């Protein structure tokens, strides 16, 4: 049975027309509201679908990043290549340096091995890595402690040498006037590391005293000056 629409009998023809217009407009508004509801529901479904898709992409990216870190810890160069191939790392010294400096999930020994490599690209990464450290107003020991906390020194003397040179340059930039030259900072930094190793290594029985430490620094500075002079001949 169809619904009947009540129309008062005492309405004038003009009032009847106005009432019909009002009822028609009401129906149009109800239909418009329903259309907007349908569009809103469709939009919400699309947003939820996009969020689910983004969540899946994020999960996949995190898995690849985790795999890249594991590969880096086993073989630093292969790990870097894997991350670059999966567009998780750009092939620039600055981007790789930031990745190593952040160090999430990375083995500090692997970081040190990568930074100590002697090819030009790795040396550029090393300098970018050192530049991420802020040594302003730190004394040398404090700066060394901060620097060496971010990775583990490799055992090869040549690698340590390159790292200490980069450190000395950065320290002198952050603290102008503390040392007469980066060479002085370099020698003292290297000597502090050797002293620390000797003092804390149980296999070293003959612990160096203060006089011996000072003599060692003086000898190294003299040797370094001789090398510089030979280089100018």
CATH topology of the domain at 133-232: Arf Nucleotide-binding Site Opener, domain 2
Structural class: mainly alpha
The main sheet comes to: none
Please write the CATH class name of the domain at 133-232: Mainly Alpha
Taken in chain order, the helices and strands follow as: HHHHHHHHH
Overall pLDDT metric = 81
| Rg from Cα | 36 Å
Broad shape: elongated
List low-confidence stretches. 223-233
Distance between the termini: 115 Å
Strand fraction = under 5%
Assembly type of the shown chains? single chain
Task: Itemize the secondary structure elements and their pairings.
Layout: H1 13-74, H2 76-85, H3 93-102, H4 108-115, H5 120-131, H6 140-149, H7 157-174, H8 182-200, H9 210-232
Could you characterize what this model shows?
The chain has 233 residues and is mainly alpha-helical. The chain has a domain at 133-232: Arf Nucleotide-binding Site Opener, domain 2. The chain is built from 9 helices and no strands. It has helices spanning 13-74, 76-85, 93-102, 108-115, 120-131, 140-149, 157-174, 182-200, 210-232. Helix 5 packs parallel to helix 7, helix 7 (157-174) packs across helix 8 and helix 8 runs antiparallel to helix 9 (210-232). The radius of gyration is 36 Å and the shape is elongated. The relative contact order is 0.05. Mean pLDDT is 81; it is low at 223-233. This is Cytohesin 2. It is found in: Cell membrane; Cell projection, Growth cone; Cytoplasm. One of its GO terms (cellular component) is growth cone.
């Amino acid at each position: 049975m169809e619904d009947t629409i009540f129309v008062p009998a005492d309405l004038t023809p003009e009032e009847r027309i106005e009432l019909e217009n009002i009822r028609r407009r009401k129906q149009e508004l109800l239909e418009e509201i329903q259309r907007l509801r349908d569009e809103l529901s469709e939009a919400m479904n699309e947003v939820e679908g996009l969020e689910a898709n983004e969540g899946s992409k994020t999960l996949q990216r995190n898995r690849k990043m985790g795999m890249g870190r594991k590969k880096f810890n086993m073989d630093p160069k292969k790990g870097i290549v894997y991350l670059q191939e999966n567009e998780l790392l750009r092939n620039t010294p600055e981007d790789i340096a930031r990745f190593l400096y952040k160090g999430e999930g990375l083995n500090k020994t692997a970081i040190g091995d990568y930074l100590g490599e002697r090819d030009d690209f790795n040396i550029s990464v090393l300098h970018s890595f050192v530049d991420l450290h802020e040594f302003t107003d730190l004394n040398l020991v404090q700066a060394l402690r901060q620097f060496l906390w971010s990775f583990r020194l490799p055992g090869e003397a040549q690698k340590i040498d390159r790292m200490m040179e980069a450190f000395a340059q950065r320290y002198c930039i952050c603290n102008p006037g503390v040392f007469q030259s980066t060479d002085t900072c370099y020698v003292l930094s290297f000597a502090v590391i050797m002293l620390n190793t000797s003092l804390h290594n149980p296999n070293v029985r003959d612990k160096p005293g203060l006089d011996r430490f000072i003599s060692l620094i003086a000898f190294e500075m003299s040797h370094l000056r001789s090398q510089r002079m030979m280089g100018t001949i």
